[in-house]
Design brief:
The complex is a heterodimer of chains A (172) and B (395). By secondary structure, chain A is mainly α. Chain A has seven helices and two strands, in the order E-E-H-H-H-H-H-H-H. In chain A, 67% of the residues lie in helices and 5% in strands. Chain A is flat, with a radius of gyration of 22 Å. Helices cover 45% and strands 16% of the residues of chain B. Classes of the chains: A mainly alpha (172), B alpha/beta (395).
């Protein structure tokens, strides 16, 4: 297949491998490729950034997810372990990239293979940690606002203490 | 004065225009029409290669059963059978066939070595692994005696199977390096050629494992020397001027030339060479351009006919005021090499190249890329290359 060419307004170009060629790749690699381009290259693409982003979404939808699903729903434990190992790595770096497999975790946790269960548990934990981090960030933001309001005398000490307690519980 | 010029901003317009021209033309056709009097070879995958190998062995067995006097036929690789194809600008192998008999004293050693290499190729393909030419020699030192004998048998095997040497899974030792605006896949890994430090990526001879996955480069620069490559890598030349840099530390081996061919075919970027201003530098450029005589049967897979000779041209020495003390006087051997090059049809056809070689012969002067250091270490990266790529001063 031909490489996909994105022409920039300044005369430059970005060339990316055709998604059809990824059908032959190890199943977790399209996901790693998307994550790699998004985190390392996308910001340098200037006027074609949006276009490339759209293409990456296409890869995700047409190649990365269907290939992952075909393995995770299958019976080949070796392949599942290989895929989960790489997904676990991805989930540690960028949890959003691992989202497509979230709905398969409950079934994977029920599998008889200990290694699959262990990997599924670790990925689930990574999701919980990420969610906790997100929640904590939100609470921190609210906490700062409450602090400001408390110092301005706009909320009571009791109300402030309630928020503070919730925040500290979550933090622990 | 020189410092003032160095601070100029070059837009590389000529190189950009060339790229736009390539973009409009589209990628080169995947099938090259070879002249009827030349040998056509194929780049095969493992399965196809095994099929072809078994067919050859079947033929030999058939001859043994039928005549009791087996032989092998293969295209001759002698200089009289090397043809320059003007239309495709390639050195190719003609259709002269030679026969190696199993039963004659003159060819018995040769044929035994050939069969041994075939056996090794079969093993490599079945295991899906690769071996270097040196390793092949060490599989049977008593039989091969010298590495040049095993190398010759390897080339014979590739020729008689009408395939590229890489298809046999026998590869050259890694030699060249590549760095710049390119991302590749090597089996399960994504390799960023911008993020490997000044040393860059060692070009893998196992190119069947390599896939080009992303690039925002606008041209490719092939550099003869490691020292010049180091200068450009240290300056992170590709950051200011989006490009891919590649060096083979001398004449490009099979892996480097095949990788360059792949880059050219898939990315369709302008390619320039930067070599010493001497007969050897011009020869190195010619090998990238149209292939070597020794591996002429593989030229369609190794040559890059659209590569331009950016420098160092003989005319550059005066233009860029290269001081007399860093110019080197040519010896008799250099003069002979220039005359040999001038006798080549592909040079005669390229008037600008012929003119520059004639000027070199007239002045009897040569110079290395490093001669530009006489104007300061950054002259090469900040003035010479950007200026030439902006003005289109290449051959």
């Amino acid at each position: 297949m031909d490489i996909r060419i994105f022409k920039k307004k300044d005369g430059g170009v970005v060339q990316l491998i055709d998604k059809e060629d990824m059908k032959e790749w190890p199943i977790e690699l399209p996901l790693i490729f998307i994550e790699y381009i998004k985190s390392k290259q996308l910001d340098n693409y200037g006027s074609v950034k949006k276009e490339v982003e759209k293409y990456l979404d296409e890869i995700m939808e047409d190649i990365a997810i269907p290939r992952l699903v075909s393995v995770l729903e299958g019976d080949d434990n070796e392949k599942i372990i290989l895929a989960l190992t790489r997904i676990e790595e991805i989930s540690r770096k960028d949890i959003d990239m691992a989202k497509p497999i979230k709905k398969y975790l409950p079934d994977l946790l029920k599998k008889s293979d200990k290694q699959i269960v262990k990997l599924a548990q670790t990925i689930s934990k990574n999701f919980s940690n990420a969610e906790r981090k997100k929640e904590l960030a939100q609470k921190r933001k609210i906490m700062r606002e409450k602090e400001k309001l408390f110092l301005e005398g706009k909320i009571s000490g009791e109300e402030y203490a309630k928020f503070r307690r919730e925040y500290l519980t979550l933090k622990e | 004065m020189a410092k003032k010029q160095i601070s100029n901003n070059y837009n590389l317009q000529a190189a950009k225009n060339l790229y736009l021209e390539y973009l409009e033309k589209g990628k080169e056709s995947k099938i090259i029409d070879l002249p009827p009097d030349t040998v056509k070879i194929d780049d095969l995958n493992r399965k196809e290669m095994l099929d072809r190998l078994y067919r050859l062995v079947d033929k030999v067995l058939e001859k043994i059963y039928n005549t009791g006097r087996p032989s092998i036929e293969l295209p001759s690789r002698s200089s009289t059978n090397i043809i320059w194809d003007e239309e495709n600008d390639l050195l190719l192998l003609g259709k002269q066939i030679m026969e190696k008999q199993f039963h004659t004293l003159t060819s018995v050693a040769d044929i035994t070595r050939l069969m041994r290499v075939l056996e090794v190729v079969n093993e490599l393909l079945n295991e899906d692994i690769h071996a270097t030419k040196r390793e092949i020699f060490y599989t049977d030192v008593n039989l091969f005696q010298e590495q040049k004998n095993s190398d010759k048998s390897i080339e014979d095997v590739a020729t008689m199977l009408y395939t590229t040497r890489n298809s046999t899974h026998i590869v050259a030792a890694p030699k060249g390096t590549c760095v710049g605006r390119l991302r590749i896949r090597d089996r399960n890994d994504i390799i960023d050629l911008e993020g490997l430090g000044s040393g860059g990526w060692t070009i893998s001879p196992m190119l069947d494992n390599i896939e080009i996955i992303e690039s925002d480069a606008e041209f490719i620069l092939v550099i003869e020397k490691d020292a010049a490559m180091m200068r450009l890598a240290e300056a992170r030349f590709w950051r200011k001027y989006p490009c891919i840099l590649l060096t083979a530390q001398g004449v490009g081996n099979v892996a480097v030339r095949m990788f360059l061919k792949r880059l050219s075919k898939e990315l369709n970027l302008p390619i320039f060479s930067l070599v010493d201003s001497d007969p050897y530098g011009h020869y190195i450029h010619s090998v990238y351009l149209r292939g070597s005589k020794r591996l002429s049967y593989e030229s369609p897979f190794l040559a890059t006919p659209n590569i331009k000779l950016l420098g160092v041209l003989t005319r550059d020495l005066d233009k860029y005021k290269i001081p007399q003390e860093v110019r080197i006087k040519m010896n008799k051997q250099d003069e002979k090499r220039i005359k040999d090059l001038l006798n080549e049809d592909f040079v005669k056809k390229n008037k600008a190249w012929e003119t520059d070689l004639k000027l070199a012969l007239k002045l009897k002067i040569k110079a290395e890329i490093q001669a530009f250091a006489s104007h300061g270490f950054k002259f090469l990266t900040d003035r010479y290359l950007p200026e030439k790529l902006t003005t289109g001063d290449w051959i």
